[in-house]
Write a structure and sequence with these properties.
Order of helices and strands: HHHHHHHH
Distance between the termini: 35 Å
Helix content: over 70%
Radius of gyration: 18 Å
Shape: globular
Number of helices: 8
Largest sheet: none
Strand content: under 5%
Number of strands: 0
Length: 262
């Protein structure tokens, strides 16, 4: 019987599949770090108090990228190019979700609607990240090679999600509620489709590296499509609800530094 723990253990135990997994993760985190860094620099004057939190979000993402690279280095591995079909961040941008990189490369300040779009996009993607890291933390928190990294990243992702809830609620109380809900819905429906496609692509690459037999690969693909069907039928709604988090001002302090993994 396949389980998440057995599947990830198989990927982690093989150098080539582990290298691909970490390369994909490091690339996505680094892209997120750059995006948040640019958004922090372009926050409009009336929202300048938000800039340090956005900057910390970016610093955390950069840190996660360094952690994944350090995990590879510890095993004598170097990053590999990320296959385009597995690039979650790039594919979301191509679907018009979030703020386009072309916009962020300009020095023109963002508008308040731009900030709302950024936060809604982050609310959805951080939900996914938090859930993924909680799953890894459940199974690998005590792993001598991965445990510290998994716990640190999971803690950060939970902070990011709390921050998005709190800031979006602030904007909702300021009169942006309908825009927020409309944007959240569009982001969530696009994200679940992109996540399905990326998951299928990643499992296809892993299957070829690990030599999975066709029935096993087909079963995994069926599971991914079943998850998408559940999310499309209503599971996406967990990504658009807003509630005041227990962790208030989750990104209000300085960024933490990465544990030395190398």
């Amino acid at each position: 019987m396949l389980s998440a723990k057995r599947l990830f253990q198989e990927i982690i135990d093989n150098d080539e599949s582990f290298r691909l997994f970490c390369s994909i993760a490091a690339s996505g985190e680094s892209q997120g770090g750059w995006e948040n860094g640019r958004i922090a620099a372009l926050v409009p004057a009336r929202e300048r108090a938000l800039a340090p939190k956005v900057a910390r979000h970016g610093a955390d993402e950069d840190k996660h990228g360094r952690i994944f690279n350090a995990l590879m280095k510890k095993r004598g591995l170097s990053p590999v190019p990320v296959p385009p079909e597995t690039d979650y961040t790039m594919l979301l941008e191509q679907h018009g979700i979030g703020l386009a990189h072309a916009r962020l490369k300009h020095d023109e300040p963002l508008s308040v609607p731009d900030i709302v779009t950024y936060l809604a996009h982050s609310r959805v993607t951080e939900q996914r990240a938090s859930e993924q890291m909680q799953m890894l933390r459940k199974h690998f928190a005590d792993d001598p090679g991965l445990g510290r990294a998994v716990k640190m990243i999971s803690h950060d992702e939970d902070n990011h999600l709390a921050y998005c809830h709190e800031e979006l609620l602030r904007f909702a109380y300021a009169g942006h509620g309908r825009t927020i809900q409309r944007t959240l819905r569009a982001c969530a429906l696009a994200e679940i489709a992109v996540y399905r496609d990326v998951s299928l692509a990643v499992m296809d690459h892993m299957g070829r590296i690990l030599g999975w037999p066709k029935p096993k690969a087909a079963l995994l693909a069926t599971g991914i499509r079943a998850m998408y069907a559940y999310e499309r039928a209503g599971g996406w709604r967990r990504m658009v609800s807003l509630e005041m988090p227990r962790r208030r001002d989750a990104l209000g302090g300085p960024a933490t530094t990465a544990v030395e993994f190398a």
